[in-house]
Structures are given as C-alpha cells and as structure tokens.
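Appendix B. Chain record.
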Amino acid sequence: MASAGARPAVVPRAGATVVNQAHQGTIVPRKSATFPRSRGARFGVALLAVAVSLVVRLIVGKVIDDRGGPFLFFTPAVMIAAWYGGTGPGLLATLVSVAVADYFLLLPRGRFSYSNGDIPNIVVFMLVGAQISWLSGALYRSKRRAEADAESARQSEQSYRTLSLELDWRVRQRTSELQFQTSLLQAQSNASRDGILVVSTDGRVIFRNRRLLELWELPADAVSGSIANLIAAMRTRLSDHQHPLGDADVLADPESEQPISLQFEDGRTLECYSASVRDAEGYSYGRVWYFHDVTERRRVAKQILEASERERQRIGQDLHDDLCQHLAGITFLGRVLQQKLESRMPGEAEAAAHIVDLLEGAVRRARDLARGLQPPLLETAGLGPALQELASNVQGMFRVQCHVECEHPLPLSDSAAPLHLYRIVQEATNNAIRHGKARNIYIDVVRVGGRVILTVEDDGVGINDEGTTEGLGLRTMRHRARMIGALLTVARAEVAGTIVTCQLTIPLLPEPQTPPPDAQP
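Structure tokens predicted for this chain:
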C-alpha cells in the first residue's frame, strides 16, 4: 500500500505512452513509427518509380516485343507513387510515364512524337493512372487520419489510465483516512464514560457505544432494531415505566442545554442530552443522544443542599428564638420608657413611641424571614398550605397580589421534592417582584397524568431573552429542578411578564378497584 503523501508508481506497458513519475503523471507522447514523408520525398519516389519501370521495360523489351502495350510496365510505378505520396505524386508519375514512354518506347524513339494509333493507349493509361492516383490518395489520406486517430486514441487511453490510477490512489488514500477517523471516533466513543446513541431520521439505530449497554444493562441485540423497540426496553429499567422518553414534547430542543433526568429502579440517575445532526445546508441526518451517569454527583449535591437547608433552618430558628425575642424585649422596654416620658416630657415620649413602632416592624420582618427560612407548614401540612402562607407573606411585605392554586394532596414520592418546589416558587416570586416589578403573581400546581406541573406567572416587565446571562437565582432554580428530576423552563409571556414552568414526572399509582355492587362485604 502506498504511504500517505506518496503517489503510486505507474508501470508502462509495451506500445503505450510513458508516464513520467517525477512529474506526477506527465504524458510524453510516443513518436510515430511511420517514416517522415515530406513533399520532396513523395514526388522523388514518384520519379524514381517511373525510372525503375523504364529500366525494367527496356531490359524486358530485349526479350519481349510489346509494341501494343508500352504503358503496361508503368502502371506499377503509378500505383507505388500514389500509394506512397498520394494523389499528386500519382498524377505526376502518370504524366512522366506518358512522356518517358513517348520518348523512349514509341516510334520514332528519341523524340516526343506519337501516332494516331497511340492516342487510345495514352488516354486509357492516363484515365487509369488518374483513377489509381485518386483512389490511392484517398487511401493515403484515410491512412494518415487513421494513424492520427490511433495516436490520439493511444494518448487518450494512456491519459485515462494515468487519471484512473491517480483517482484510484486518491480514493484509497481518502478511504484510509476515513477508516482511521472512524476507528478513532469509535475508540473515543467506547472509551467515553457517557452512553452514546445515534438514530437516523427514519428511526434506525446508526451507532451506539459499549457504555450505552453498560449504563442501561441491555443485551447487544436490543439496539439492533428500531428506536421504538429500544426505548421500550429502556423504559423497563426506569422507576417510571411510563416515562415519556423519546417523545417529541419532552426531548430537549437541538439548541437547548436542558437535559432530561432519568431515574432508575436501582436508584441511579442519568441525564440525557439530545441534539440534531445536520450538515452545512441544514439537512438533518438524525439525532444523537448522550446518557451521563450523575448518581454520585446528585448524591453529593443533595448532601450539600440538605446541609444548606439545615443551616437555613438553624438560622430561621435563631432568628425566631433569639433575635425576635431580643427585639421583643427591647420593644417592651421601649413601651415602658414611653409611658414614663408621657407625663414628664411629652415630646420625648412621642419620639420613643416612634422608636417602639420601628422595633415592632423589625420584629415582624424578622419573624417573616424566619418563616421564609424555615417554613413550618411544609413539613406538617404539605406544599399547598406552605405556598398559601408564602403568598400571604409576599402580599403583606411587598403589597402585591399573589394567587395560589394547588391540588392537595400531591403524590410526590421523593421526600425532598416539596422543599425544592417550594424554594423554586420562592425564588421565582422574588425575581418577579425585584426584577420584573410585577403587581400580580399566579402560582399553579396541578397534576396532569404522570406529571406534576408547577407554574409561576407574573405581569411584570418580563425576562429579556436576548443578550442576558443567567443569574445565581435562576441557576439555583435549575439545579434544584435537576435534583428532583424535573425540567425547568423560563420564558417570556405572550402579553407581559415571565412564566416559570417546572415539570416533574411522578410514578402513576394504580387506581383503586371498585368492587361490584353485588359483592359480599
């Protein structure tokens, strides 16, 4: 096999043109095997043939007396001249033969004279010579054209052969490069810690790596069929066998960075990223899926969030039990001081009353902060009452209308899900008030099939979709959604404001079977 960057050596065959390897396929035409036939040579051959014919006639004439046919021996001379030189030399040989025969053979010899009886022979000979010259000339021209065509065909054949060898070398080189790149990509894919799956537009599995089978614990023949059969096999490994994996309304947009969270029956968690494979003109060849195991990362992140929540609760408890009590004591002393100053110094008593009012406001704010850091109703009453209390606090503190619609109870199997959903609502309402300048906030929590859909909508200025970067609050909301396997989207409302949507997949509980009316109790 030729090495990369080298050109294949071309071995010429006998009778073919030579390929110059140093010039990378430059063709050197082969010289023609035909002798050069210049004008002088062609007409010289005609005169020589006539002379030879005359000599032969003179020699033969000593033995044979051929008065009636003196032109018979000049016919070969005309034929040879026309064959070698074409029409012109043939006609010249014909005329010269007539003159030579008249001078040397016809009586009286030694001068150009002929009798009436020689005219028919001369005319016939000239007609035959002209016909032979014309036919031989046509044959000569055809032969020359055939030789030129044959030479051109040989050159074209050699050029084609050279180009074919060059094309074959380039094809082998590109095939070798593609095979190397394919082997490299396969090695990289098999060495990846992510499961990779490539599906064509018609639903066929084009490629998968070994890690995909390891993550999903599937046999090799599970990915040999259509994507529908593969997804059905994948769903059997999930805790929710009805998970809409692969559905068009759940798969991430090709330009989106939001993954799909998949919870396994054995407790493992995978994140699925999906993107469309397109060429430069935008034609879609299919989709590629990446499955990343985030079980350990989720475990560590959950521990960090739990520690954070415990710290929140400690701070909230300290605010309620320590700071609020301390401020309440200061407020009580302020009231006593106000009562003492009312009889002696009314002006100072009024100032003391104002200070006491400020202290009471600080106590209320500290208690609201404590309830926000440590929502007591979340653990005792559930998510709905906790959201109602949050809405009441928002209305009291910021003078905005906050409406809550929440189904109760919600079938949340994950014990951490209510707290994360509560924090997402809390952050969304804070963003709506501080950044969106909203006057009305609507919080809805509903169950649709196998999903719990949380929506926080406001009538503020709305989020700017262009040229903005996610802040810490939005990143925290997305992180909390991923922790419980939910999909969070933040978009601008159609009229005004912002809509925050969090979709959480929950296992579908079997509906209770109602006994028939005639069943015995």
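Further analysis of this model is presented in Appendix C.
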